[in-house]
Write a sequence for this structure.
């Protein structure tokens, strides 16, 4: 479908409600006429699984007009045989008829809800590609107009039921009851993770399916005029949302990524061993402290007082030769009188019993146990509290004290390796299918329009000083799991400093823009300003380049440069860098003094959110902030003025509504931060999204065997044959640098590699 030819067109309303399940030759003829006469057609598949690569289509539904719906079944659940059976009409296999019917959809304007699912199922089961004919995805339409959920079709219908003239909630509840009863009657299950729709009676499935396509048309017809009113028509249909969805999003979920399974299993074993080793080192380091020994002995004594001989006595006999007072132990065994025992011996036995029961005296997986030890015995000051108000032991605390305690430094590595194993290694092992990983991609996963997918969770490459050598080694190897197939290459192209370039552009600060135009290192420039460093340069070629002379100062400045435009204050910066709040404020002032327009932009963004209740990005995407406008109309900025809020809090405490006031304050602060965050992230999203569209378009025009395999943060991973890798790299770089023009200019850095990790070395 050519985006520029898209015109405003919605579905018509039929006079009466008609939902039909086609089971006869006459019905097939009727359905052929219905499809051929339609223009805008809602389409939906019913399947045996949530996985389009392994599941089967049991039928599909279409609706050309509101109030109408036709369901065509291709397979049927057979209770006796416990499988999905082929259906026949007039001696012809229903799947063969379905293929012909679906081919009749080609050239129509197709509407779907969560189209990726139905398009991929149709492609995998029937070999029919509907992407070029996908007119509108109502889930994406809903996200464009109202960025927060719900995004499920039924949930949207319930939210809009007054506007749609439906009792959608009642209908949905009744529908679910009928479905579940039918499924259970046929021996199926209806758990959240295993919803066997295909085991319901055909008539019930047919009604359910027809209702879905009808709802899809209703939702689209309601939203399209609003899309026009909000000046989002071109944004949705022409420039970004649907072109990206058709060309790249669906494709990324379908093609998958080759995995190096040998390396994956090797690292699984190695990291597992390192975790066990570190756990022992943490415990040994803790147990070497006298405070820990005291804690352990008190715990053991309380848990296992030697009042009865039982297990205590048996253990005494086992370690008799190691006791301080063997005679006292024998006397205790004879009459059970605890006074015979030496205290040290008593505690020693209790400790051994604890070990047998719990496996170790210290369970480093128990936050409560470690909190008790740290706060009550080691004298460590807490830095945060739980919701219940108790002192909290968490990873943040471990990081904060890691410089002072050997056990904490080891535990920091232990926690990071556990995350590497669970979040990456285990996840790939669990999700791989025949040595390939298929990422789950959500184009509507964020309010800004950035992709949300499990590929976003891949760790970035850690530089020296960011983590221990052990953690860096294994973290940086995770990306090596992802590799090109034999004879092919990965073209990995990263936008250089995209977010800083974007917030320089949206703030329109000339000093900040010039940092990039003059090829300065932003974080070095910020360090020079924030820390008042004299005789240092932010230019890489200079002899006094700060990164070479004071790399730690650049790293600290990076935290400031990335955090402040998103709303971080002195307290957060101080916590992050481990400095006093006053010192942090001086650094912030030094940073903003050098970029005065950035500070003005942050202030003006707040005002827009407060007065208009929404923010519009440079490319037209909208972020609704009605709650900010409402709260500001009641309290102005008093909620974020420390001394004013202190008095408000005291008054609220007297009136018993302190929690409500705290909640309002949090929502207000988050909303103001979201206003800034959205402008930055939405433009960054559009840069990546629109570049992807153009990259795909040129690949298609030149008939190149190349495709965008992944988008991870601000980089594309493209898969292509080795012999055209350089041509592909040039195409990718060109569109990433030139599709969207911003004052700071864009720089993309392509690499050609066999593995994902190699592309970053």
């Amino acid at each position: 479908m050519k985006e520029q030819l898209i015109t405003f067109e919605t579905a018509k309303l039929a006079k009466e409600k008609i939902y039909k399940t086609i089971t006869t030759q006459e019905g097939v003829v009727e359905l052929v006429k219905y499809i051929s006469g339609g223009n805008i057609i809602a389409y939906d598949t019913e399947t045996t699984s949530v996985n389009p690569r392994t599941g089967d289509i049991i039928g599909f539904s279409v609706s050309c007009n509101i109030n109408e719906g036709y369901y065509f079944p291709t397979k049927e659940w057979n209770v006796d045989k416990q499988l999905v059976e082929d259906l026949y009409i007039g001696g012809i296999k229903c799947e063969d008829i379905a293929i012909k019917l679906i081919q009749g959809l080609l050239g129509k304007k197709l509407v779907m809800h969560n189209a990726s699912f139905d398009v991929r199922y149709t492609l995998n089961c029937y070999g029919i590609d509907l992407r070029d004919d996908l007119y509108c995805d109502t889930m994406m339409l809903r996200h464009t107009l109202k960025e927060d959920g719900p995004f499920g079709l039924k949930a949207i219908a319930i939210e809009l039921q007054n506007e749609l003239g439906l009792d959608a909630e009642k209908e949905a509840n009744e529908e679910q009851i009928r479905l579940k009863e039918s499924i259970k009657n046929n021996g199926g299950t209806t758990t959240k993770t295993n919803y066997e729709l295909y085991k319901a009676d055909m008539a019930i499935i047919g009604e359910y399916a027809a209702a879905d396509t009808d709802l899809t048309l209703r939702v689209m017809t309601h939203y399209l005029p609003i899309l026009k009113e909000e000046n989002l028509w071109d944004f949705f249909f022409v420039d970004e949302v649907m072109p990206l969805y058709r060309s790249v999003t669906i494709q990324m979920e379908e093609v998958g990524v080759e995995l190096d399974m040998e390396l994956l299993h090797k690292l699984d074993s190695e990291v597992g061993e390192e975790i066990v080793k570190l756990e022992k080192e943490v415990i040994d380091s803790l147990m070497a402290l006298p405070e820990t020994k005291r804690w352990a002995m008190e715990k053991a004594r309380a848990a296992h007082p030697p009042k009865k001989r039982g297990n205590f006595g048996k253990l005494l006999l086992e370690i008799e030769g190691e006791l301080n007072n063997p005679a006292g132990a024998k006397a205790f065994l004879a009459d059970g009188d605890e006074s015979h025992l030496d205290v040290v011996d008593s505690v020693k036995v209790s400790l051994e019993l604890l070990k047998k029961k719990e496996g170790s005296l210290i369970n480093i997986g128990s936050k409560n146990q470690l909190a008790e030890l740290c706060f009550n015995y080691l004298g460590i000051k807490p830095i945060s509290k739980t919701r219940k108000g108790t002192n909290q032991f968490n990873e943040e605390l471990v990081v904060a004290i890691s410089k002072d305690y050997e056990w904490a430094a080891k535990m920091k590595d232990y926690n990071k390796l556990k995350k590497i194993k669970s979040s990456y290694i285990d996840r790939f092992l669990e999700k791989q299918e025949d040595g390939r990983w298929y990422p789950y991609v959500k184009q509507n996963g964020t309010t800004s329009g950035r992709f949300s997918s499990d590929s976003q969770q891949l760790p970035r490459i850690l530089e020296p000083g960011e983590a221990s050598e052990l953690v860096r080694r294994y973290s940086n190897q995770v990306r090596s799991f992802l590799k090109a197939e034999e004879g092919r290459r990965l073209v990995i192209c990263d936008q250089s400093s995209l977010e800083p370039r974007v917030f320089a552009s949206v703030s329109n600060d000339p000093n900040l823009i010039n940092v990039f135009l003059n090829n300065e290192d932003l974080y070095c420039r910020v360090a020079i300003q924030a820390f008042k460093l004299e005789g240092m340069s932010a230019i890489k070629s200079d002899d006094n380049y700060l990164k070479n002379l004071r790399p730690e100062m650049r790293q600290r400045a990076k935290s400031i440069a990335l955090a402040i435009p998103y709303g971080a204050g002195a307290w957060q910066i101080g916590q992050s860098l481990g400095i006093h709040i006053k010192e942090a404020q001086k650094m912030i002032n030094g940073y903003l003094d050098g970029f005065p327009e950035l500070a003005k932009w942050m202030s003006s963004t707040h005002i827009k959110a407060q007065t208009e209740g929404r923010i519009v990005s440079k490319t037209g995407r909208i972020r609704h902030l009605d709650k900010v406008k409402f709260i500001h109309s009641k309290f102005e900025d008093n909620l974020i003025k420390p001394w004013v809020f202190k008095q408000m809090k005291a008054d609220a405490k007297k009136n018993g509504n302190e929690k409500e006031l705290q909640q309002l304050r949090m929502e207000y602060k988050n909303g103001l931060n979201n206003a800034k965050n959205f402008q930055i992230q939405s433009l960054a999203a559009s840069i990546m999204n629109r570049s992807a569209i153009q990259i795909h378009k040129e690949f298609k025009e030149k008939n190149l065997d190349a495709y965008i395999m992944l988008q991870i943060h601000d980089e594309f991973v493209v898969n292509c044959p080795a012999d055209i890798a350089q041509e592909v790299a040039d195409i990718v770089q060109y569109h990433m640098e030139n599709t969207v023009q911003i004052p700071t200019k864009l720089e993309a850095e392509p690499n050609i590699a066999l593995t994902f990790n190699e592309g970053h070395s």
Q: What stands out?
A: The chain has four domains: 10-138+145-229, 262-415, 437-498+685-760, 500-679. Residues 1-5 have pLDDT under 50 and may be disordered. The two ends are 40 Å apart (CA to CA). DSSP finds 31 helices and 21 strands in the chain.
